[in-house]
Write a structure and sequence with these properties.
18% strand, 3 domains, 13 strands, D-Maltodextrin-Binding Protein, domain 2, 312 residues, 5-stranded mixed β-sheet
Length: 312
């Protein structure tokens, strides 16, 4: 069995290039502030690893072999690539100033903002963060128009001019009521069309992604969902807890709203999940701060529950 040759190190390339530039092993050793024998030993190891002779040594000068001349540009590129790799993470490690702007669907401020900001500030305490919450439709427009760099939205949205990266987080939508007798069975679209509903996203109405999907299910059956109340998402949940009307929401939203003990839930039939995605302008490069927000949010979303716990 043949022995594997020892790996070439970046340090060996660095010593080699210094010797080429200085024309002397002793001068190269002085540049790196090491003893000449130590540098010479690293050059010998490099030659052994490559299986070639790099220098012809004379009394007056250090002559490059053909192998050395061939190696020079590749060794330089290897060192340059290593420097670029190191430099690529420095901005994230040393991000100490600037403002990161990020957009999110309207209930994000309730579901995950505190956890996200806690993570970001623990790692980048001097980074200013500007988080904008709007309906997903509005966030998509703001990013498309250049008012925001990127964001997270419920889909589907108009994705013209946008890059869409779906998330793994996909919370289930439940029917919530203050009256337990109303949630004994899963809620079909027929039952929903007959129920008194308080629905969120009063600003955009049926353009809200979740409401759009429900209407697309109802319309082929000649049905429609006409809410008796349209409010913002938190007000909708609280109105349901007060018994004014029933609502639709994810478990995480109801839990964060503080109304979980006042409400009873039933799944939809068929089961429906909200889908979310990170979006940015097509071809745009995110700033360092925006990447920090996005990467930390991916981690936070792993802790946000998708469904109602079985023992609830």
């Amino acid at each position: 069995m043949s022995r594997r040759k020892p790996a070439v190190t970046l340090q060996q390339y660095e010593y080699f290039l210094s010797a080429v530039e200085m024309g002397s092993l002793s001068a190269a050793a002085d540049v790196h502030m090491i003893a000449q024998p130590s540098l010479s030993e690293q050059i010998r190891r490099l030659e052994k690893s490559l299986g070639v002779t790099l220098f012809t040594r004379t009394n007056r000068e250090l002559l490059l072999t053909d192998a050395a001349k061939t190696l020079v540009p590749y060794a330089a590129k290897a060192l340059e690539a290593a420097e670029q790799a190191q430099a690529s993470v420095v901005p994230l490690r040393e991000l100490t100033s600037g403002t990161a702007t990020f957009g999110a669907f309207s209930t994000a401020s309730v579901i995950f903002y505190v956890d996200l900001l806690r993570r970001v500030r623990s790692h980048f305490p001097r980074l200013s963060v500007r988080l904008i919450t709007r309906n997903s439709t509005n966030i998509a427009d703001m990013i498309r128009n250049g008012d925001l760099e990127c964001g997270i939205v419920a889909i589907p949205v108009d994705d013209r001019g946008l890059e869409v990266e779906p998330t793994a987080w996909s919370p289930q939508v439940y029917y919530w009521s203050a009256y337990p007798e109303r949630v004994k069975e899963p809620m079909t679209i027929e039952k929903l069309s007959e129920a008194d509903l308080v629905l969120p996203e009063s600003v955009v109405g049926d353009m809200d992604p979740t409401r759009r999907r429900l209407q697309e299910i109802a319309q082929p059956q000649g049905l429609s969902l006409v809410p008796v109340l349209e409010l913002d998402a938190i007000s909708a949940v609280r109105s349901a807890a007060d018994g004014l009307a029933d609502t639709l929401a994810s478990y995480s939203l109801v839990r964060k709203s503080g109304e979980l003990e006042q409400l009873y839930s039933a799944p939809l039939d068929p089961v429906m999940r909200e889908n979310y995605a990170f979006i940015q302008r097509s071809g745009a490069q995110l700033s360092r701060g925006a990447r920090v927000i996005k990467d930390n949010l991916k981690t936070v979303l792993e802790t946000v529950p998708n469904d109602v716990p079985e023992n609830s």
